Amino acid sequence: MPVAQHVMRHAAERPSRPAVCGPQGELTYAQFAERIHGAARHLLGRGIGPGTPVALGLADPVELLTAVLAADLAGATPLVGDPAWGRERWSSVAAGLGFHVDAPLPGAAGPAVRHDPQPGDRAWACFSSGSTGRPRAVVRTRASWTESFPHLGELAGIGPDDVVLIPGPLVSSLYAFAAVHTLATGATALLPGRRPSRALRGLLARATVVHLVPHQLPDVLEHPGALRVAVVGGAALDPETRAAAVRAGVRVVSYYGATELSFVAVDADGGGLRPFPGVEIEVRPAGPPGGGLGEVWARSPWLAEGYLGDAAGPLRRDAGDWATVGDVAEPYRVGEVLRVRGRGDGAIQTGGATVVPEDVEEVLRKVPGVWDIVVIGSPHPSLGAVVTAVIEAECATPPPRALLEATARGGLDEAQRPRRWYAVPSLPRTQTGKPARAQVAARLAGGDPDIRRLI
Description:
- By secondary structure, this protein is of the alpha/beta class.
- The protein has 13 helices and 27 strands.
- The strands form six sheets. Strands 2-1-9-8-10-11-12-13-14 form a nine-stranded mixed sheet, sandwiched between helices.
- The radius of gyration is 22 Å and the shape is globular.
- It is an enzyme of class 6 (ligase).
- This is Long-chain acyl-CoA synthetase.
- Its EC number is 6.2.1.3.
């Protein structure tokens, strides 16, 4: 069933229940359903119907969701992108667009919109750039998007009486999924439209559930308010943060996945990542024998169709309907915990050794004064690359290099220890809030004056 039709059902059953609360105010399910119908009629009046891609670049999250669900109701394929992009940028990343929406859709009067949806409809498209900064439009069917909703709802205990905080831009598939899942459930979506800072405490006083990435969780746990569940995706969650959540009375449900693969594994109780319902996992050997790490492959109903316009990307498939995006993990057998070690294309080859950046970052992120860190490989004439750390400090002054090196000696093998150290006022980030590794590397190579060498 299209998410828009879920909204219509909630509007009929609980019309006064708040559906969305954004920067401009709040709409009940009845009000939201009326706006979606009006916008869908407008799209149909412009000749936008089943199968038509509709590019959506709206800054206001409520207006964006209205347009998304209007396209959904009309049978079109909503493609959510960055509102800062111009038409030329849109054309470069998504050629052959049927319609581009960069202003709130007007409503149109008329009868209720009817569309006969099919599970295989191309019902959603969003951009994935990972840490590379090269956006690709990932397209998925209706079934791959919506039929996983009940599983997440059950794992996280999210129901129609919840108030769900979504503290990030909807161009990110992580936050977009959270928003439409909330509306399909009949809960209330809190949509600040950007990553809240000063407003966070007030939002948490109302929210019972939050969707976020790991580096945001410590801020949330300082003043959890009414929060009872945090759904965390995007990277590994360290044990200390999970323990802090327990002390704050917040249950953490963390998961591993990718825009192209959707959910792959979930940790609902702190016991480690295990296959998400409906998912089969294999870790296949990659690289030379005895390397110790393999490539994560998944087979499930939640896989995306591919990239819009057959764009190139990390998604690969085999003849058995298995797929991978190149992530690496320790050897895995069915029934065991999956230990993901990072993105395979980010591995650093240094002096014949392979270093996974996330392993180094996990150790150095614990140094007092380190807010976040990116580890990359810098070119070296004889070693191929040397491990390089770029620190974002909690305050203006980064930790002393001596302290960073002492921590590296105590927790890392010799090949893993950074040989070059830098500090930056703030790391560039992807739409999900993860550090943009390739952008850091490009800025460092380009001699960015904001990146300061630690001596």
